[in-house]
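for the record, two folds in this file. i put them one after another cuz i was lazy. first one right below, seq on top, C-alpha cells after. the second one comes after a little note so u can tell where it starts
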Amino acid sequence: MKYDVIIVGAGVAGLYAAMHLPREKKVLIINKRETFKCNSFYAQGGIALAIDKDDVPLHIKDTLDAGAGLCSEEAVRVLSESSRGVIDDLIARGFEFDKDRDGKLLYTKEAAHSKERILHAGGDATGRYMHYFLLEQNPHPMLTDARVVDLLIKDGECYGVTVLDHRESRNIYADNVIIASGGVGSLYAYHTNAPCISADMQGLCVIKGIELNDMEMMQFHPTVYVDNDSAQKLLLTEALRGEGATVEDEKGRRFLFDYDERGELASRDIVSKAIYDHNKKTGLQTYLSFKNFDHVYFTKRFPNLYKNLQLLGFDVPKQRVPISPAFHYAIGGIKTDINGAVPSVKSLYAIGEVASTKVHGANRLASNSLLEGLVFGKRAVEDILKKQHAKKEVKFEVADEVMSLKEDKEKKNLLRKIMWENVSIVRTKKGLNSALNQINALLNEKIGKLLKFRLLTAKEIVLAALARDESIGVHYIKKDDSD
C-alpha cells in the first residue's frame, strides 16, 4: 500500500502535522516505542507565544538575543507571527490551558523572556497534556513499536521508508515523508530525554548525504536532579526559576550573580556554564531552593514535580534539591527551509527537534520548542498540500543488514561516556579530538546499523564543534586545556 504521507515520530510536531492532514488522505504515523515515550510527553515547561501584535517584536528580540546572532530572522519572524494562531487553533479544538481565578489565560515568565508570555497546562505537565490531546484528536492510523532504518531516495526524491517491524525489515511507500523523530538525548550519559531518543534519523541522514546544520549546538538544562539510577534524569523546569526558585551552593550563596546580572533568570547556557565553573572552582554542590514558594501554591502549580520529588525523599518546598546540568535539547539537526522541507531531497520534510530551521540559533529560548513543533508542523503540511503532484512508482530492494550485535550495548554506553566527558557543557580541542578518535575507532569495529546511526550523529556533533573556534551560545570551547 502506498500512502500520501508518512510521519516518522508521534510527538507534538508529528501529531499536530497529522491533525492538519485531511482525514481522506492516506497517512501513516510510525512510532518507535509506546506513544508516550517521546520528549513532548516529558516537557514540563510551557509554550511561549507572542501574546498579541505588540508582543511580536519583543518575542522576536528575546528569541534573537538568546540565539546569540545565529538565528534566521526570517524563521524567528515566522515562529512569532504564527504563534497566536496555533494556540488559538488548539483552544478552538478543545485544548485547555491553565487559567487564573477570573478564567483568563494564565501567562508566566521564564528565563530570558522580557515579559510573562508562557502558557501552561496541568501546572508542570504542558507537554503531557498537549501530547495526550493530540493523540485523542489524531484521525490517522499509527504503526507502533517500529523504527525507520532507511529512507528510500532515488534521483534526489524520497519515495518512502524502510521500517524494522518485529525484527523484519520492509518498505513502505509514500508521496511525502515527514521526519519528526526528536533529538539525540541517548548519546549522553546524563540527559532529560525519553529513553528511545537515540539520534537514528540524524545518523541515517549522514549516510544518505543529507545536510545536518548547527550540530555543535547542543543545549544543556542547568537544573536537573541527576542522582537517580536511570540515564534519563529528572528535569526541574525553567518555570521554577521564573517564579522564584533560587540557585545556591551548599553554603547557601546565590553565586549566579557573579556571572550574569540576571542571576537565575539568565539564559540556560549562561546558568549551565556558571554552575559548571563554580562547582569546579569551589568543589561545592549546587542546589535549587524553593523557600520562596508557599506550600499550597507549589503543590498546585507544580503537582508532578512535587509528587516526584516527594517520592525521592525531598520535603519540598521546604527542602532544597541537589542539581547539575544535563543534556536537554538538540538545537542543530536536519537542515530545512521555513516550511520544513529538506532542500536537497524532494518530498522529504523534517519538523520539531530533529530539524534545524535556524529558529533557535546558538541557544534555544525557553518554551519555544513546543511552539516550533506546532508552527513548522502545520507549515510542512500546508507545503505538502500545495505541492501535490503525481509521483511515478519506484520499487526498492529491502536491504539485508545486521541491525544490532550483542556487543553494541557496551559500545553505546562507552559512547555516552565519551560524549559527556568531551562534548558537553565545556569543550576543549584536545577533548574533542579525543572523542573523534574514539568514535572513529568504534565505527571501524564490527557493529550493527543502529549503533552506526548513533556514532555518525555523534561524529557530526564533534566535527561541528571542532570547526567552530569561538565560543557562542551553548557552544563553549576553552582555549587553554590546562585551565
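(here's the note) second protein begins now
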Amino acid sequence: MADKFDVIVIGAGPGGYVAAIRAAQLGMKVACVEKWVNKSGKTVHGGTCLNVGCIPSKALLETSHKFVEARDDYDDLGIHASDVQIDIEKMMARKDKTVANLTGGISALFKANGVTALEGTGKLLPGKKVEVTDHDGNSATHEAENVVIASGSVPVEIPPAPLTEGLIVDSSGALEFQEVPRRLGVIGAGVIGLELGSVWSRLGSEVTVLEALDSFLPVVDEQIAKETKKLLGKQGLDIRMGARVTGTDIKDNEVVVKYTDSSGEQEQTFDKLIVCVGRRPYTQNLLADGTGVELDERGFIQVDDTCQTNAPGVFAIGDVVRGPMLAHKGSEEGMMVADIIHGEKAQMNYDAIPSVIYTAPEVAWVGMSEQQAKKEGFEVKSGVFPFSASGRAMANNATEGMAKVVTDASTDRILGVHIIGQHAGELIAQGVIAMEFGSSAEDLALTCFAHPTLSEAVHEAALAVEGHAIHMANRKKR
C-alpha cells in the first residue's frame, strides 16, 4: 500500500484541480490523479477544458473574430487595413502556447499548495482506495479518508458518422485543422457546434450545420435564440433544422453526408465534417466492483445535492454527475466538496449557473427563460433593451443584440437574465450576482451603472420590466 491521504481526487480538470487545491488550502493532505498526456507524452493537468475545450477554442474564436473585424469592420472606424491575411500555422501555435501556459500553471499551483500529483489512470476500489496505473502499466494503490471523482466527459460518437482521421472529427479534432476547409459540415447546432462552425466560417469555410432537432437552441430564451439564428445566418452559417444524419461515405478524400429533413432524403459533400452532438460522462474502468458508487440510466454517477455518492466518503463532481456540463459548475462543486470534507457547511446554488456561447456576438444566460418560467407556473413580466440604443455599443460599432430580464410578476424577483451582444459572457455576471442575492428587477433598476458602458443595457432592461427604460420608447403596459 502506498501513501495514505486525506483526499484523493481522480481527474485534474476544472472540477478536480480546484477541489484538490481548495482541500490543500484547508490543511488536508491531498493527491490528484491525472492520465492526460500532451503531444510530447508528458502528463498535463486541466482536463478537456484547458487541453481541447474551453481555452483552445476561445483562442481560435478570438483570432478569427479579430481577423473578420480587421477585414470587414475597421474601415467603418476610419482604419484602413488592406489585404488582411490569416496565418493558420501561427494561429495554431498561439493556441498551443496558451494551452501550455495554463496547464503548466496548474502543475505549479499543485506544487505551491502541496498537492501530490499522481500520473496515470485512477480507479476507485472498495474501502476508499484508489489504484493508479501509470503509462507503463505499473500499478500502485493509495488509501484515502475521502475520494473525489472528477473524471469528466468525452464527446459522443454516432454510428452514422464514425470518426475518420483528418476527415470526420470530433470537437478536439476541429481544433487541429492545418488549413481552412473549403466546405465544412457540422453535425449539431449546440454550443460547441456553433462555436467551432463560426471559427472556420470566419476564416473562409462554407459551413453547413445539420441539427436533428426542429427548434434552435431550445435551452435558450426563444427571443434570444431567434436573434442568434438570424445573426449567425447573416454571418454565413447555413443552419438546417430537422436534419437527421443517416450515414456518411468517404470518397476521393471527401465526406459525403446523407441526411433526412422535411423534404426527404438529402446528400451533401464536405471536405471536413465535425461531429458535435454532445458529451457523455467518462466512467470507463473507473469503478471496481463493490465500491457502492451507483450510476444512473444515462451513465452519470448518482449524487445528492452536495455531490455525495451512495458510498460514504466518496464524492463526484463536474461532467460525470447531473447538471450542465460546464467547467465553472464543476469548479464550484469542487470547492463545495472540499469545504464539506473539511467539516464546513457548504452548498451550491444550481439556479444561478451562467451559460455562454462564445460566438460573435456572444450569447449568455442565467436562470429561467420566459418560456420555462411560464411552464413552471409563474406569471411573467419581462424587460428588453436593444444594444442598438446603447451609446457604448454604438461607439464600439457593436449594436447587434439585446439584454432581457425575466421576472415573477407578483414579486418582481428576477427569474432569469438573457443577453446576446458584445461581451455578453462578461455582462451576465451581473445577472448571476443579482439572482444569487435574490434581487428584484427594482433592485437592478435602482443600481447606479457606469456610463457609457455595455452593462447599462442590463440596467435599462430591468427598468423596462415596468416600462421605465430611459433610452428607448417603452411599450405601454396594459
